[in-house]
Structure prediction request, 475 residues.
Amino acid sequence: MVISMKCKFIRLIITAMICILSVGYLLSHYDGKKYTIENVEDYVGSICKIGGVPGMSVVMLDNGQEYYINVGYADKNDKIEMTSEIRCELGSTTKAFTALDILILEQDGKLNRTDAVKDYLPWFRPTYDGNEANIMIEHLLCHTSGIPVWTIANLPEGTIQDVNLLENTVKGIQSVPLDNPPGTVHCYATINYDVLALIIEKISGMSYEAFTQKNVLEPLGMTDSYFRIDNAKSEQTAQGYRYAFMRAANYDAPAFYGNTAAGYLVSNTEDLSIWMKAQMGIFDEGITTEKVEHAINISHSYPVENGQHYFAGWNLYDTYFSHGGNNPNFSSNVFVGRTDKKAVFVLSNICGSASAKAADGIYRMMHGETVKPGLWVDGNSLLDFICTIVCLVEGCIMILLFEKKKYAGMIAFFCLLMAVIVLLLPYFFHYNYFALSVWVSPCLLIAIVGIEICLAEYIILYIYSRKNSEKKGHI
Prediction:
């Protein structure tokens, strides 16, 4: 009787926690205030508060004038404040730098965008519908190669010390059937730009990082930018975070050297101010930038069809171009105007959509709009919250099973069904548990383990109960 009362009390506490956390989560993700360019700093602070972002750095350009906003911490534990000199991993906004390498090589007559990838990588012969497909360099630049999105889950972990990791990364997808015939459907697959990086290395005889440093970063004067090639971190690089049990937790994500060209440039908002100016044709005096300037102009000149297109690391629109980036523990977003010289670049040290939300709102404010966040929930944060609640629910299930309630059989069936679903679901989408452990909240894997424990508990209790029944039957 005493044990039963204790179990009931614990279940009530867990139920109350679920209710309190749910209501608190919704309330903390709502901001009904209206923001304009006059109080843009408050807007950035609000986004960081709502999204649970440890630190965010913003640079805005308005007709050549620079404005910086820094909120929160580059490292919460050591109380290091975020500044415009603190570096963050860019994620997929790196792709625009990689595309310039290709366009520079084209200027030099070393390649043509209409060349087949197999001309430079003879072993790269993907298939569509059982037949060999001809992927061109331009298809990689536009994400129309047909390579599936989920191939990001196949990226092998490793650093620059792992010989031929870039080539092995690309070889890892050569036998994967394409989702669409090349050149027909835009399908964003990050590994497209790793294939481009390997082509750059084969043609130039240099590493991708060295070629980009020499031909893009140095001519532009981006001296604070470098590529992540291993697990080392400079003193002025922010600590990365991810969501875990409804908070931002320190997270040192593994290195994926084979994916450097698609997401691992490390930079700060001071250097990215130079980058955005270059996109608008503004260059410092005394710097020779003819090749990179021409390549930048080409990267924006691709025809925009039906109001949107993707080319050379940019989402192209009629009046602006933009791109976002996410690594497992960093994010970024950039907007650059076509018809005016207004731009914004946002960096944050947590994976998610906060950088995109901030950049979009700021860019709209720069054009005279009033922005109201309303109810805004980051997808990664939401997944973490749901998994946290699931873990609490699993706690209730474990107690109910222990109490041997009359509906334990129904609970067991639910556990069995959920166990099968959670174990197999990732593989239906071609993902694996290593990729999930890298990219999502650890709460997801804990929730998966929890449902298996519930099932195991039921089986153990069922066997124990049957044995007891058999003993009583022999008495």
